[in-house]
Write a structure and sequence with these properties.
The chain is an all-beta fold and 124 residues long. The chain has no helices and 11 strands.
């Protein structure tokens, strides 16, 4: 497992932008994929974006496609989530995760390491 530390959450009005960061303590062969998940109060955790660090190939849930961008800085061992055109329904606790998925890259069970989460609140 790796230790993940997220930052960048906060409160913003609808239409605004935020950038989340997730820095890993190390790189291991079984943490070659990073993903962002979110969990609104009382709801299940939802995978929204993932990236394979080796191939720099992003994947997005339909709910964020065209608005959110996942990227990686290998030198800093950091993954970013740029969130634009935010909506009130984007309000949630956001988590980053590391793993080596063999199936759905947006499925929580495919990841073995998780950050502590950072809150994003979007007001109308």
């Amino acid at each position: 497992q790796v230790r993940l530390v997220e930052s960048g959450g906060g409160s913003v009005q609808a239409g605004g932008s935020l950038r989340l960061s997730c820095t890993a303590s190390t790189y291991t062969y079984n943490s070659a994929s990073r993903a962002w998940f979110r969990q609104p109060p009382g709801k299940e955790r939802e995978g929204i974006a993932a990236i394979d660090i080796s191939y720099n190939t992003p994947y997005y849930a339909d709910s964020v496609k065209g608005r959110f961008t996942i990227s990686v800085d290998n030198a800093q061992n950091t993954v970013y989530l740029q969130m634009n055109s935010l909506k009130p329904e984007d309000t949630a606790m956001y988590y980053c995760a590391a793993g080596a998925p063999v199936g759905d890259l947006l499925l929580p069970a495919e990841y073995h390491s998780w950050g502590q989460g950072t809150q994003v609140t979007v007001s109308s």
